[in-house]
User: Fold these one by one.
Assistant:
Number 1:
Amino acid sequence: MATNDAAGDWVLRTEALMKRFGDFTVIPGLDFRVRRNTVHALIGPNGAGKTTVFNLLTKFIQPTSGKIYYEGRDITRLSPADVALLGMVRSFQISAIYPELTARENVRIALQRPLGTSLHFWKSDSSLSVLDGRAEQLLESVGLRAFADARAGDLPYGRKRALEIATTLALDPDVVLLDEPMAGLTMGDIERVSELIREVARSRTVVMVEHNLSVVAKLSDNSPIASFAALASVTSRAAA
């Protein structure tokens, strides 16, 4: 990957980012740069601080010190909601879906969020049907069109992960942070979700925490561009 330190080339970066919990330093001072329209993987042993980095970047926890910049803007003290509105959203290690709702309804709720109506559950189904077309496009994009009317809680685990990616994409993010997207998946599901991540990366920046090194090798290149915590490292590749 060619080196280019132009400020506009970095969609996300940190400066001396540190997080302590009491006397324990989890992140000792991270200088981290994410190039626009690339795929990045954070790798390292359990406890190295990978998920903590995600929580810091998306503001679910506040740093002890240091700075976070998104599109050149200091977002260090913004709220998680404000960061998401700017265009950076994340998934979680545990699939975050509404199990009692259908796959379509899960995506439709996510589509309501940019409109400020995601909590308007009292609205009639017909008044929200205008979102169905886009919801079904997103379900199609993750291979779930045939499961649109299925109860989300009844989907196999791999398809639940795909549904979570669909709800993430419904927020129309520029940067997608995926926390262990392959955790608990079968070999077939890993191939399916890997291909989905490739598709997502065609038009977005992707940062992922992942323990499956064969997946990392396929989706990212092996050149470390930063390091944090004990043995963790960051790899990236330019998106195809």
Note: The CA atoms of residues 11 and 111 lie 24 Å apart.
Number 2:
Amino acid sequence: MHQAGGRRRGRIRQTISFAIVAMTMGACGSGRTDHAASAATLSIGVAQLSSTSPIAGLRQLSPLLVLEGLARAGDDGRMQPWLADSWASNDQGRAIVVQLKRGIKFQDGSPFDAVEAARILPDILRSFMGPVFDDVAGVKAGEANTITIELRRPSPFAMEALEASIRKPGGSTVGTGPFMVEGDSTTELHANNSYYLGPPAINRVTVANYPSVRTAWAEMLRDRLDMLWEVGIDALDSMKDSSTISLFTYTRHYQHIMVFNTSAPPLRSAAVRRALNLAIDRTGVVREALRGYGVPSTGPLNPRYWALAGKLVRPLFDPEQVAAALPKEAVRFTCLVAPDSVDERLALEVKRQLAAVGVEMTVQEAARDEIVRRGASRQYEAAITEVISGPTAFRPYLIWHSEGPLNWGHFGTPALDVAFDRIRRAPDEQEFRSAVDSLQQVFIDDPPAILLAWSVRARAISKRFDVQAEEGRDVLSTVRFWKPSTVQRQASRN
């Protein structure tokens, strides 16, 4: 069907490990004060990264620097080559034949060829795909460095799962990417000098965690950091005219949402959840809470997703209908939100808009790890968070299907399971498009959340580096091309 191709002040900072599934944190000393000590070191400051959250932290960074997939998703959801040169669907959609690039090695020097791919890919796909892996019958190595992914039935999600990160089995994080974890280090990455596309110019990446974006930004102003992982929206305008810092913004394939616990009494009724959606002006949310740095949500899929073909079922903003849709008893619920974050701004704006239609939302602060813990035990009514959402249809499946491997908060509804399963089983492109339309409609008829806005992220990078950016992608995806700038500047020592 498819064709080829971010408690308050306390400890100053913590360091984070680059494990993808089991991340650990530890104490770190003072920041680097002399860039000349290592001209090819990139120091990154991050804020409030969680040690356990499946929706934040190095799960968003490591795949960009350490791990790669057979393919990567374009902004329209079509898969693009990465470790694979090409692929084709055979046997009436019951097989995917993948042609691998030649000369690829893991960071430990061992080859990643068809034989190794056939050996490790089943476990990688099983972990990435969750219950959808049942569609996969096996993986076989073929001639001329090809592999065949055999399917029990046609499975559009199997094609989209080609983006799963390739990681060598074992306790360490060993991939094929341009940077690598060396030894037992929990604070830095080193260049993979045997990278099949050539070694990166940057030979070392260090990452330090701070209690807030404000603290990390202060360190960058003191010239102790080269990059701010995420710029707070309050600082964006003031940074625009900086002579020493470049800003790179892009719309992420993540959405800011207020998710509902659909088993909680105040939010069990689909009619109540529909009314809450009608009460929210998403354009106003972007303007007031995100200062314009966001894109109002229209559904769970990227508006440019190929199967939508420009056809969107938009959530309505119609406060006049809310009163008629709400029960006579006042609707009251509590919403969890991480402190000192964009989520806090979003919660306050949603609270204001709901109050205008007589709904009482209490905002309760909780650390990100606490939100995840309470989500897993369903000890919440609502929460402001951020979830992966596109550009493929499989990515939202991971979050919203009841058996999705990233569904840490028991999100979704039975109707959503039916809609996703219909997409998964679509035998042809026409049925796939129809199933995608149905999914969009279910998010309106039986909403599991208020989808607020697509996330816009900004990275601040010192002009000490010549940075190449790729349109539509995170600037971090091109780190292997970055070079120390030949233009020298006077370092700030605030």
Note: The CA atoms of residues 123 and 417 lie 24 Å apart.
Number 3:
Amino acid sequence: MDIFKKPLHHVWVNFKYYLFRSFSWAAAHTPRRFSYRFGLLVGDYIYLTWKRHSANAVSNMRRVLGPEASWQTVKRMARRSFRNYAITIVDFLRFPYLDEEDVAKSVPTREGIHHLFEARDKGKGLLVISAHIGNWDIAGSLFMSYGLPLSAVSETHEPQKMDDLVNGTREKAGMKIIRIETNSLRQIFTALKKNETVTILLDKPETEATGVPVQFFGETAYLPSGPAAIVLKTKATVLMGYCIRKPGNRAFEGIITAPIEYEHLLNGDKEHDVQVITQAMATLMEEQIRRFPDQWYMFREMWPRTEAHNVEVRQKRFWGGERHAELVNG
């Protein structure tokens, strides 16, 4: 049976490529308001039918909003995150057809941009952490519009022509893509040594065996150690940057935070230093997610479900397409 796996895989990845090309062309040549309406319907459909992902989103949103929020509010906010993610996918499909002027017009308001230039003056390179929040492609294009070299850590897409289309579009805009599968660490260190900027997503759930424990929205989560290890080695300036969708879905706001002050937390022990830097990053990320919880697209289990906190969100559809979430203590 193995002889059929490679041909079937080849057919599947090529099918995804041509499907993406078709949807990308359609999204770019359809009035945006209609594309967004379709995206909102898709977001609702996914929320109502992908039980595992919607359950994860509700469970995560419970932590973000805190115990004082009603379950109706938690469910509503989780559903809105699916809707916002769906129209972000519409933006992603349209992205190959946008130019610098389109991006500039779409981000009329910008917060904290001066932090970029102040950080660059320190001469140690900039590590801009981000999360699955807002629109990361618009954020990257906005960053480059200020003439600052930017490298983004990204996975390689299959097939190669899909990677050429997605990451190639970003590279044509001036962004350097550092692919995880290659010698990514060396490229990151080189960029930071040249006082350039590297951006990396921090909110990737890890296991207890592979991640760094942090307090995140009042509970223990495990985040990747790589970003903090890079900072520890290079002494790069750390900020958080992202673009958030404004009400009405017609424009974005670019946001750059003040740098993290982490030097006073270090004591020379590598394991300790990586943990405290990761915690400082997590605290900053938490502050920003609290501002825009319905634009945080985390549909995986961010927090491990242990015996001490075994929460299962069961979702049942009832007439009208709404869902009922029920907290069950294990």
Note: Residues 99-308 form a domain with the Glycerol-3-phosphate (1)-acyltransferase fold (CATH 3.40.1130).
Number 4:
Amino acid sequence: MVDSPATQRTPVERAVVSERWLALGALGLVAAACWAWIVPMANDMYGDMTGASAWMMTASWDGTHLALLFAMWTAMMAGMMLPSAAPTLLVYGMVARRDDAAAAPLRIHLFAGGYLVMWTAFSAVATAVQWAFTSTGVLSPMMEIQAPAVAGALLVVAGLYQLTPLKRACLSACQSPAAFLVKHWRAGGAGAFRLGIVHGWYCLGCCWALMLLLFAGGVMKLTVIAGLAAFLLVEKLMPPMAQGGRLSGALLVAFGLYMAAGL
């Protein structure tokens, strides 16, 4: 069907739409590549552990094992968090095209790169936490918390953080891409990278405590990973005035206390 003259898109509008799909496609490819490694590894871990997760079967945490564990966390964070960053990235792309159409594609990638820098840093911290939990016997070789009381305590911490003003402030920045860009806008490629880092910082402030659920439920349990990724996406797509964090926080605290009590 051919658009009528009144509804035909201008060249600029067609470029914006095309760029939007390119940005979504790039995000989708990166996220799909991450899930393509995580899903077989998670399935193999609860199978015979001779495939994608075979490297985990070692008693020594040498440099190679730590590097692979860090890569696993990085892929998992990218696969989980990139989809939730899509709204802000798309709004940034539209603004960047109006500012400098020729440089917009590069600046979009720089923004995404800055965002991933923050989650890569978080992955390094998560790797260190997992190493500490494993070396002290808190975490089993199957990457699961061995004591229900500890798992319950992690849920309580995550739930309490959901109720804090800091959580709401960070979530608001993630739920309102236009307002975020107006407040933090920087021009140029360096500005795009900085914006990505700032957005990643807010996103990290919004979601870090919920990542404790990976330890509480099983770091490599696919249902936990997929369920948490879906929840984070829905939480960020909710209207800024919605109080979903309070409900989820109360539920997490209640369930955490239930687990800690051994009921």
Note: The longest helix spans residues 63-99.
